[in-house]
Amino acid sequence: MLSYGSLQDGDSRAKKGDLSTVIYIRQGHIYTRSSAVLKILGDLGGVWHLTRIGWIIPRPIRDFLYGLISRHRYRWFGKRTTCLLPEPFVQLDTQHQHDGEQK
């Protein structure tokens, strides 16, 4: 199961790192920038596994593209004051996907 914490959240374990980027902690490993995005998308499963092809791109190039998108994301996608919550059927589907996993 994926969970997240806001960088502004006082309880976030990411506080120790760079506050200007995405940080993904998985099985004790810390991933940042494009590597974090690729790991997150891969862990989502389904069609997102296709993003694994991104690992063939050298990290400096991936991180450059990550920075380009992060600098322009509000202009391209807009900005909201609150996070959108998924519809109940999406939450339920995600929960069922993880119910069968061994922990």
Could you characterize what this model shows?
With 103 residues, the chain is mostly helical. It has a domain at 13-78. 42% of the residues lie in helices and 8% in strands. It contains three helices and two strands, in the order ββααα. The protein has helices at residues 33-44, 59-77, 88-99, and strands spanning 23-26, 29-32. Strands 1-2 form a two-stranded antiparallel sheet. Strand 1 (23-26) and strand 2 form a beta hairpin. Residues 92-99 have low confidence and may be disordered.
Shape: globular
Strand arrangement in the largest pleated sheet: 1-2
Question: How many E-type strands?
Answer: 2
Largest sheet: 2 strands, antiparallel
Which whole number gives the mean pLDDT?
Answer: 75
Give the helix/strand class.
mainly alpha
Question: What keyword list fits this structure?
Answer:
single chain, mainly alpha, 3 helices, 42% helix, 8% strand, globular
